[in-house]
Structure formats: structure tokens, C-alpha cells
Design brief:
It contains four helices and 16 strands. The mean pLDDT is 85. Helix content is 18%, strand content 33%. It has 244 residues and is an alpha+beta fold. It has three domains: 83 residues, Trypsin Inhibitor V, Chain A; 67 residues, Trypsin Inhibitor V, Chain A, CATH 3.30.10; 67 residues, Trypsin Inhibitor V, Chain A.
């Protein structure tokens, strides 16, 4: 009985570290050598499971960790860390030309890019992007640049002639048509769906518009759309003719 008590209440807890836990230290900002040394002193391990880039941190320094600082873990636990890349990753520059300034800002942010200076040039389309610039030079969609780069934009000031030729929306998905309208500084008028057509749960497409493509319109003018499921074609109009 005495031997059993020693085994269960003294030997076994010491052998398995039963009831003991270690506090995870803060590794943020350390390099791997520093972190390994600190964790070894606490009988913990370290492993890299990710990397990303931050211009505010030193290259190859630790950005994140799991488990987080202050959490309780068992001896021998592995702490997984994300380290800072030496250089940022690259990505293709999205096409912002002919988009509204607001839409361009959203796209830059979603691609982890920054908007820099905004230059205004004469154009009937106020805040419509005319050109993208990087480090003072024109840059074009698809060019690979570093994440976090700053892109300057040249946009219209809305002070030129107010008349222009409207483009086509026919064949575009409804959401694409709305983006085009915003980029052209036009707004949506009425929406018509042909009788017997149901767009519920589907992506509707534009099959007719008014004013027609090629018509002259003014900034702010409404564009009326007819939408239906993809592939829909408007029935031909039959004209009755009377015999003389």
C-alpha cells in the first residue's frame, strides 16, 4: 500500500509533469536564434510554419506565434512562428484605368497596395482614373510590383466637355455593368426583366440598354437596362401587314 502511494502521488506526477505548465514567452521581434535559446531554457521547441512581409519589422524577425504569449503549455510543446520575409512578395497590378476613384481605392486596399498622390487632369469624367503611376512613371495593369507599394493615380476633373459617347453594356453581367456605369460617371435608371424570365439565384446579364451604345449622353444621365439569364435573346417583333 505504501509503495502504491509513493508511485501514484510522488513518482508518477514527477515523471509526467502532472499538474505543471509553462507560460509561453513573447517571441515577437526576435530572430530565430534568440527565440530558440529562450525556448530551450524553458524546455520548449520552435518551428516556422509561415512567412509574410512587414516593412515595420526587421527581416527574418518573428511576426506572430502560436500558442500566443502568456498561454499555458506543457513542457516540450512546439511554438509555431511566422517570420518576416527579407523582401515583400510581388503581385500583378490590377487594372484601375476607367474605374472610379472610390473603386480604385478599394481595389488597391484589397491587394495590399497603397494609394499615393491623386493628380487631376481635364476630363468630362470626374474622378475617373485615366492613368496609374509608380515612382513617378506610368505603370500598366499586370506589371508585378511589391505588396505595400504606393500607386499614384491620374483622374479626371470633370471640367471638360460634358457630352460623350456611351459604351456598350450588352453582354455584361449586371454587376460588371454597374461598375462600368460608376466609372463613366453615369447612374442606373430603370431595370426591366422580360416576362417569364426568372433571375433568382442566377447571374443576370444585360441584353439591352437605353441610351444605345454609341449614343451621346451627358455625365450623370441615367442608363436604363434590360436584364435576363445568360443567353437570353429578345424575341423578334412581328409586324402585321394589311393586304390592299
Amino acid at each position: 500500500m505504501f509503495i502504491a502511494l509513493i508511485y501514484f502521488y510522488i513518482y508518477l506526477p514527477n515523471a509526467t509533469n502532472h499538474g505543471k505548465s509553462l507560460t509561453v514567452p513573447d517571441l515577437t521581434g526576435m530572430n530565430m536564434e534568440q527565440a530558440e535559446k529562450m525556448l530551450a531554457e524553458k524546455s520548449l521547441r520552435i518551428a516556422i510554419n509561415d512567412s509574410s512581409y512587414s516593412e515595420d519589422a526587421q527581416p527574418l524577425s518573428i511576426l506572430k506565434q502560436f500558442p500566443a504569449t502568456g498561454e499555458k503549455v506543457k513542457e516540450g510543446r512546439t511554438i509555431y512562428v511566422s517570420i518576416n520575409r527579407i523582401t515583400p512578395t510581388t503581385l500583378p497590378l490590377p487594372d484601375l484605368v476607367d474605374r472610379s476613384l472610390i473603386n480604385a481605392e478599394v481595389m488597391l486596399k484589397s491587394n495590399e497596395l497603397k494609394i499615393g498622390k491623386v493628380y487631376y487632369e481635364a476630363s468630362p469624367f470626374r474622378n475617373l482614373v485615366k492613368e496609374m503611376r509608380y515612382q513617378g512613371q506610368a505603370i500598366y495593369a499586370g506589371t508585378r510590383i511589391y505588396k505595400g507599394s504606393t500607386i499614384d493615380l491620374v483622374v479626371g476633373d470633370g471640367n471638360a466637355s460634358a457630352d460623350f459617347v456611351v459604351g456598350t453594356l450588352i453582354g455584361d453581367a449586371y454587376k460588371t455593368a454597374l461598375l462600368k456605369l460608376a466609372g463613366w460617371n453615369l447612374h442606373l435608371g430603370t431595370i426591366e426583366i422580360p416576362e417569364g424570365q426568372d433571375t433568382t439565384g442566377l447571374t443576370p446579364y444585360v441584353y439591352k440598354q437605353l441610351p444605345l451604345p454609341g449614343d451621346s449622353v451627358r455625365i450623370g444621365e441615367p442608363i436604363h437596362l434590360w436584364i435576363a439569364p445568360k443567353g437570353y435573346k429578345e424575341p423578334a417583333v412581328e409586324i402585321d401587314q394589311e393586304n390592299d
